[in-house]
Amino acid sequence: MVFAALLLTNCSSISKTSETKPSSNLKDAFKDDFLIGTAVNVDQIKEANPQLAQLEIAHFNAVTPENIMKAEVLQPEKGRYNFEMADQLVDLAKRRNMVVNAHALIWHSQLPRFVRQMKEADSVKKFFNDHITTVASRYKDKVYSWDVVNEALNEDGTMRKSIFLDKMGEGFVVEAFKLAQAVSPKTKLYYNDYNIEQPKKRAGAIRLIKQIQAAGVRIDGVGIQGHWNVNNIPFKDIEESILEFSALGVDVMFTELDVSVLPNPFDSNTADVGARAEYNAKMNPYAASLPDSVQKKLADGYESLVKLFVKHKDKIGRITLWGVSDADSWLNDWPVRGRTNYPLLFDRELKPKAAFHQLINIKNNVSSNQGTNHVQLK
Ligand code: G3I
Prior knowledge:
The protein has helices at about 1-15, 25-30, 40-45, 50-60, 70-75, 85-95, 115, 120-140, 165-170, 170-185, 200-215, 235-245, 290-310, 355-365; strands spanning about 35-40, 60-65, 100-105, 145-150, 190-195, 220-225, 225-230, 250-260, 315-320.
């Protein structure tokens, strides 16, 4: 109780008062390891909920806009840009001393209608050039990094069907990095995707990174999104990916971390926003509350993951949670609408969950992870 109250009042002073006392906020606890980020939505940027804002200030030193820097928001009509929310986010981050990871310049999803309707290759190329140049140059000294290209790959490592692949060929990825580098020379440039810890898709990402490098273009990092299920966190693949990506000379980041506790309606793990399944009660087993056993399993999963990240902290730049509280997670409505999921570190009342405490305890050398369902770390 006292611990929770302290968290909500003045966490940053705790770590400053004593060097030996362990930190009880995330960004300070892991300050020697990596940045700790969160995704924010429009209400969070407007600081609509002061208690939530306090949590963000206390625990995170990096921020990713969940939606407001996607193309359909920034350029809703051809040539008409709307930077209002993105500018507010940049101001908010500056006030809070957080770095912004801007998300995302080129993505097949959430494109403006006028782009989705394009038929001519020249029109697509013009949008591509104009959008990257205008947006990346506006934020060149204001954001720390860009997800330059998001989700360009299929599960088997081949290029995913998109208007950019269709009209510009596979070279659009290199081209996007080249354009971003030209107008924003100091910003870190990343490739971001889900499931790229999986061997075949990972091989595709390695191929793309090598293509960018072979063209003499800069790529600073790769973002493994990290949308996983508590029953199936791929620890071995994650560790292999950290090693293989960093061997290419790029930073590794976990950029959209959340761990679903709900049944997966599909045969395989995906974070494809287009994947949808029908609601039925069996798909929503914890509508009233989360059983202690599942809460513990979730906490153990997070603990094992973050221990693995700490083990490779020299290769990892940032860990970003895809939201703060379970109430705001996209996983309540995806891939099945209207479920009650529990994938993050703070509950619907904004109280820290067992997973949060176990992460903090990693730095206090207290292991709570007695679970046998997680692989031993190498
Ligand atoms: O803005 C409209 C609003 O006007 C309307 O009233 C409302 C009605 O449904 O929809 C609002 O748009 C929603 C938007 O989020 C903003 O809240 C969309 O329906 C909804 O589909 C959209 O979902 C986002 C999703 O990307 C869409 O692509 C999620 O919030 C966001 O978490 C998710 O983020 C992606 C990453 O960018 C890339 N990796 C996967 C990740 C999770 O899907």
